[in-house]
Amino acid sequence: MTQPSPHYQAQAESTCGCARGCSAVAPAANVEPTRTGATVLLIPTMDCPSEENDIRRALGAIEGIRSLGFQLSARTLSIDAGEDAIAEAIAAIRRAGFEPKAVTQDSAGVSPLHPSGMGSGFGRVVLALLLAIGAEALDYFAPDTVLLKGLGMAMAAAAISLSGFSTYSKGLAALRRGQLNMNALMGVAVTGAFLIGQWPEAAMVMALYALAELIEARSVDRARNAIKSLLSLTPDTAEVRQADGQWRELAAAKVALGETARVKPGARIPLDGRVTAGNSAVNQAPVTGESIPVDKTIGDPVFAGTINKTGILEFEVTAAADNTTLARIIHAVEQAQGTRAPTQRFVDRFAAIYTPAVFLVAVAVAALGPWLFDWGWTQSLYKALVLLVIACPCALVIATPVTVVSGLAAAARRGILIKGGVYLEEARKLRAIALDKTGTITEGKPRLVATEVLPSSVPESQVLFWAASLAGHSDHPVAKAIASGLNLPEYGLTDFVALAGRGVEARTDGRKMTLGNHRLIEERGLCSAEIEARLNIHETQGRSVTLLASEQQVLAIFAVADTIKESSREALAELHQLGVASVMLTGDNSATAGTIAKQAGIDDARGNLLPEDKLTAIEEMQRRYGATAMTGDGINDAPALARADIGVAMGAAGTDTAMEAADVVIMNDDLRRIPETIRLSRSVHSILWQNIVLALGIKAVFMVLAIAGSATMWMAVFADMGASLLVVFNGLRLLRR
After folding, report:
1. CATH 3.30.70.100 occupies which residues in the chain?
2. Neighbour-count burial for 626-665, b at 16+ CB within 10 Å, e otherwise
3. Whole-angstrom distance, CA of residue 580 vs CA of residue 648
C-alpha cells in the first residue's frame, strides 16, 4: 500500500501563537506512537506544535533519550529513556515553563481524556477575581490612606500571583529565548500597569485573562475530545467462552485473539471480531456513520462500540482492545489533529510577524507620545500597555485549530476519516474525481450470470473444475463470484501467479491454464472473431467477462454481473451539483465500463486500464480539470491513490491497509460521503476566514480606541477575551453537523 500523498505532507516549519501564548517557529507536528514501557507525561499547558518544539529543544541535549512521542490532542509526551534521563527530562521541561505529570495510558491504548483545568484552577482564578474586585473597591470607595492603599496593593498583588503564575512562568521562559508571545505581552502589560499605580486594573486584567484562558481551554477541549468520547462506547468487559464451555466476564483488554466472545441483544460489542454463531441486526453508526442497522450472520465482521440489536451473537475476536477499528479511528484523528492546514500555517506565519510588530508599536507610543502629541509620560505608558493587551494574537491563532479539529470530529462522526487538516481544507478545491468500478460504484458483490464452455477435446466437467480451481485461489471479486457460482471442488495447483489487472495463471494436470480478462487473452493471441462476437454480447449488457484458456485455445467464457448501488447515483448527482466532474477508471472492458457509467450518471468512462494506466489517467485529469481525487479500494488502485491530490479509500471499516493508505477513508462504502466531505471542507474554509476577519477586525477597532485614549485595560481584556470566545464558538458550530 502507498503512504499518503507526499505533496500533502505537513510543511517542514510552522509557527504558532495559541491561546496559551506560543509563537516560536516549530516543525510540523508528527505524532509518533507511544513505545511500550515508555514514561508517559501529561503536560496540561502543551497545546500546539510551537510548545511541542520548545519541549523538544529543552530535551535535545539530554543523553539517553531514545525517542519522544507527542500527542498534542491529549497533551501527553512519551519518553523512551532510562530513569536518570527521565528525571533530567522532567527538570528540563519545568525549566521551559511547563509542569509535567506522570500518567498511565488506558487499556485501549489511546490517550485518555483530560480535563481542561476547570477544577482547582477554576477555584484559584475565582479567588483571584474576588481579590481583584476587592482591590478595585478599596481604590474607588475607601479613603486615600497609606494603610488602605497598602491593603489594596497587597490584594492586587495576591490576585496577580494566584492567577498569573503560569503566565509569568511561560512569559519569562519565552523572553529568555528571545521570543515575544502572548504570555510575555500580558506579563509586561500587567507589570507595567502595577508599577505606574494602576494596580487594581492590573489585578483585574490578569484575573480576567486567566478566567478567559480556562473557559477557552474548556471550549477547545470540547472539540478535541469530541471524537475521543467514542471510547466510552466500548464496554470495559467481554463475556468469553472458557475451555469447559462456560461463559465468564473478563476485562476486554485481557481477551486474547482467537477467543470466542458473546454479546446479547441491546448490548454494545466489546471487541472487533467475526461472527461464528447467531444472526442479528447491528447499529454500526459509531464506526461507519450508518444510521440503519446492518444484518450480521456467520462470517460477517463486527466492530467494537457498535450495538447488537436483536439476537445473540458469538464471534471470534480478531483484534486486541488497543487495536480495534474504533481505537484506530480515534488514533488516526489524533494524528490528524497534529497536522497543520494551509490557512493555519498562514495565520501562524502572520502571528510570528504581528506580535513583535505590535510590541514595537507599543514601545513607540510610550516613548514618542509625549514628544509628538504632548501626552504625559504616564498617559503614554498606559496607552502602550492597553495596546499590548488588545493586540495579543490569542483570538487570531486559536481560530484555525479549533475550527479544523471540529471539522475532523464532525466528519469522523459521519464515518469519514480525514487524515489531517490539510486534506479537510483542500477538499473544497476538487474539480474532478476518478472512481474505480467494483465495490465503489457497484455493490462489489458480483454473481455469475452466464457460463459458456467452448468446443474442445477437454470434457466440459474438466473445464469447469479447472476454472473453479483458479478462481478459488484469487481474492478478486469477479474470481470469487465465478468460484461461488460454479461451487465445485478445487484441483491442486502449482506455479500459481497473480497477474495484476489481468487475471491469474497456474499449472494443473500438467497443463498451464490462464483465467483472465479480455485484454489478457488478446495479449496471449488467443482471441478470434467468434470469441469477440460472444464477448461483445455480454459486454454490451454491462457484464464483466472472464475467460479460461490453455496455452492453445480459449476453453470457456464466464459472464459476471454487478449491480450499481443506489447511493452511487445520488452521490454522482450531488457531485455534479457541486461542479465536480466524474470519470470511471476500471480494468474492466470498455463496453461494460460505458454501460455502468451511463447507468450511474458518470461523465466519462475508461476501461481496460492496468494500475499504471490509472496513474496516467489521473495525471491527465489533473492537467485538464485541476485538483483531482481518486476513489478506490486502496489496494489495486494504490498508484492512482498516491498520485491524486486526495486519495479516498472506500469501505475500509476494519481494514488496516486502506486506513493507512488513503488521505480520506470512507468507513462504509457509501459514495455520498464524498460530496459531504466537499461541503464540509467548504464550510470549514468559510468559518476559518470568518474567524480571521472577526479577530483582526475587533483588534483593529480597539487599537484605534486605545491610541485615541478611549479604551481602558478593562475594555482591552474584555475585547480580547470576547474575540477569542467568539471564534471558538463559531468553530464549534461544525460539531452540530
Report:
1. 10-111
2. ebbbbbbbbbbbbbbbbbbbbbbbbbbbbbeebbbbbbbb
3. 15
CATH superfamily to which 416-442+564-674 belongs: HAD superfamily/HAD-like (3.40.50.1000)
CA distance 489 to 468: 7
Please check whether residue 392 is in contact with residue 717, taking contact to mean a CB–CB distance below 8 angstroms: no
Nearest-angstrom CA–CA distance, 129 and 152? 13
pLDDT tens digits for range 543-586:
888 999 998 899 999 998 877 888 899 999 999 999 999 999 98
Catalytic residue among 436, 645, 669, 720: 436
Instruction: Give the separation between CA 116 and CA 324, rounded to whole angstroms.
Output: 27
Q: What is the pTM of this model?
A: 0.66
For domain 235-323, which CATH number applies: 3.40.1190.20, 2.60.120.680, 2.70.150.10, 2.60.40.10? 2.70.150.10
Distance CA 654, CA 269 (A): 14
- Give the list of residues 6+ apart from residue 602 with CB closer than 8 angstroms, or none: 435, 441, 572, 582, 583, 584, 596
CA 62 to chain centre: 32
**What is the CATH architecture assignment of 10-111?**
2-Layer Sandwich (3.30)
Across-strand partners of 102? 41
Tell which phi-psi region holds residue 117, choosing left (phi > 0), alpha (psi between -120 and 50) or beta.
Answer: left
495 is catalytic: no
Q: What is the pLDDT of residue 3?
A: 38
User: DSSP character for 512?
Assistant: E
Long-range contacts of 117-125 (CB under 8 A, 24+ apart): 117/44, 117/214, 117/217, 117/218, 118/214, 118/218, 121/214, 122/214, 124/162, 124/163, 125/162, 125/163, 125/207, 125/210, 125/211, 125/214
Model confidence at 117, pLDDT cuts 50, 70, 90, reads very low
